[in-house]
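step: validate -> pass
step: tokenize input -> pass
step: predict -> running
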Amino acid sequence: MIGRSIEESIIKDLDGNKAILLYGARQTGKTTLLKKLFSGNENVLWLNGDNQDTHALLTEISYSRYKTLFGRYNTLIIDEAQQIKNIGIIIKIFTDEIPEIKIIATGSSAFDLANRTSEPLTGRKREHYLFPLSFSEMCKHHSFLEEYRLLEHRLIYGYYPEVVTNPGVEKDTLRSLTDSYLYKDLLIWGNIKHSDMLIKLLQLLAMQIGNEVSYHELAQNLGIDRGTVERYIDLLEKTYVIFRLSSFSRNIRNEIKKSKKIYFTDNGIRNALIANFAPITLRNDVGVLWENFIISERKKFLSYRKIWANTYFWRTTNQVEIDYIEEKDGHLHAFEFKWSTKKAKQSKVPASFATTYPDHSFQQITPNNLVEFIL
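step: predict -> pass
step: emit ->
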């Protein structure tokens, strides 16, 4: 079984007196991870928020009822807890009134589970985020050399566990995920009747990686209003399908101040949406694939190592740009991403950025030096 980077962090929190919330998109391995941690433990009760039986057990909120139903267990795991009404109040009862039962809740939609738990569970929770598999996790699983050999394959098919562990049927697996299952929560809680518009929006976003996204332009292309586009994008981010980067702006008058870039959490999902699984040598979007891959891997790196950083891109109105910026402890760290090492040698930090923000570092990230960026 492939080890996950957050295993030790979760194990450490098991000794505490707080509820554990494990977030992540569907099929990223949340249930598999917890089953590994609690394998053979007869004092663990598993409930699934997708099942009506679970709703029936938990709907009547009562300390005495919960104590009677679950008192013989020391751990209660609720999968897909975002589906359960008043889940935050339910977890609060366990942490406050039945502390001898450790409660763990997983959620594939932050927009529902987080909203329902944020206020009731203030000071009562430990949050963890599980992404698709990472380059780092796969290096530990077999070796760096083996994973580096598969780099081009990962740029095309991504890191969803089922994709990685079932070689040869990657296309079928990704098509199944992007057909509807990945968006199940969004369709339910976002009150979206049909997924067609959602898929069209994602396809447009897939073709705009690395570029500023115009909500107005997307709305025109889809024939819907801008507000609906913004709501869909917000929900897609809260179900961990995509994530946004904001523009960095502090001093220069012509800096772009309010724009967003949108990336996919996984390359394979992006390529499935546009039905393009062609090898790297036959593609004209390899730079885009590399940029999406390396930024998503960096996002995993920061999250798993609990490194707190503000992340941005930088661009001016005359199209001078930097792909990615991290702001940590008062310092700016700027990065350019180049698939071609030849182009990387020619790349330099923009003079206007260097002059305005002298307290910065600058580095080009290529396949030759990705180790220091994501391992």
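step: describe -> The first strand starts at residue 19 and ends at 23.
step: cleanup -> pass
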